[in-house]
Design a protein that fits this description.
The chain is mostly beta strands. It is built from one helix and 17 strands. It is globular and about 40 Å long.
């Protein structure tokens, strides 16, 4: 109860402070934001969907694990191994990239990070940067290998996914619990199906943070068939007929809350 009162008080103070200098109705200052600033050179800036001080930084993660890719994104590279739920921004060391998911089509999938020189070495795809949409709180990009449109948004604890698949008898969302950010390595992972729409699991890792533990729950808008692949991967498979698949993620303290404004959610706890 004490923490609930504290949160309410902080919100009330913020509201009162903003009221005195509130901008004219209709002004949206986020239109002046360019999320690509700092994504080239040695900027190390994350690109994706998040909110200020949020626990989720949902965005694409690329193949390279070099110093310029510590945020998971660099303007010189359009490879994507999946969409991870935690990223660093502006740091000179790599970590996080926890709980990476990748929409795929086809059964011939190599469950690995892969190398750009060999497309068959992993399940990665090029992103069509000419159709990329980046604005505060929203990210969208087509994955050319699978002809899937990815759309992402986030709240302070929740990351929402929407994937538009082509018609396929072998569509899937692959969970990658192995690959972290640069110096981050998985030490223990687990994933299991609670039902044909819900997955739960965890990822423990060591990197800049020596003993990091992230737990998650994932709910889908469509029933799937679950398949564990090796030690660190899992595949949730389904048939598609050119449809939207909604997914969403939540971080600690949010699993008990109800969300009725989207059809389904992925959750971290």
């Amino acid at each position: 109860m004490k923490s609930q009162h504290l949160l309410f008080l902080c919100a009330a103070l913020l509201s009162a402070a903003c009221t005195r200098q509130a901008p004219p109705s209709g002004d949206d200052f986020t239109r002046f934001v360019d999320p690509h600033i700092g994504t080239g050179g040695h900027g190390h800036v994350f690109v994706g969907a998040n909110v200020p001080f949020g626990m989720v930084q949902l965005g694409p993660t690329s193949i390279p694990q070099e110093w310029d890719w510590t945020s998971g994104y660099h303007q010189s590279d359009s490879t994507v191994i999946g969409f991870s739920h935690t990223h660093l921004s502006g740091t000179g060391i790599g970590d996080l990239f926890d709980i990476t998911v990748m929409p795929v089509t086809g059964r011939e999938t190599c469950y690995a990070r892969g190398m750009e020189e060999d497309p068959a070495s992993g399940m990665w795809s090029y992103a069509d940067r000419s159709r990329e949409v980046v604005r505060p709180g929203y990210y969208s990009v087509p994955l050319t290998r699978y002809n899937v449109l990815a759309e992402l948004t986030a709240t302070s604890r929740v990351g929402f996914h929407r994937y538009t698949f082509p018609a396929s008898d072998a569509a899937a969302i692959v969970f990658d619990l192995e690959n972290g950010g640069c110096w981050d390595k998985a030490t223990e992972t687990h994933i299991e199906a609670e039902s044909d729409r819900t997955l739960t699991g965890w990822r423990h890792s060591s990197g800049w943070a020596k003993d990091q533990k992230v737990y998650f729950m994932a709910e889908f808008s469509k029933p799937f068939t679950f398949e564990q692949v090796g030690e660190h991967y899992a595949r949730a498979s389904f048939r598609t007929d050119s449809f939207f698949l909604y997914i969403c993620h939540k971080l600690p303290g949010s699993l008990h809350r109800k969300h009725t404004h989207v059809p389904v959610f992925h959750a971290f706890s």
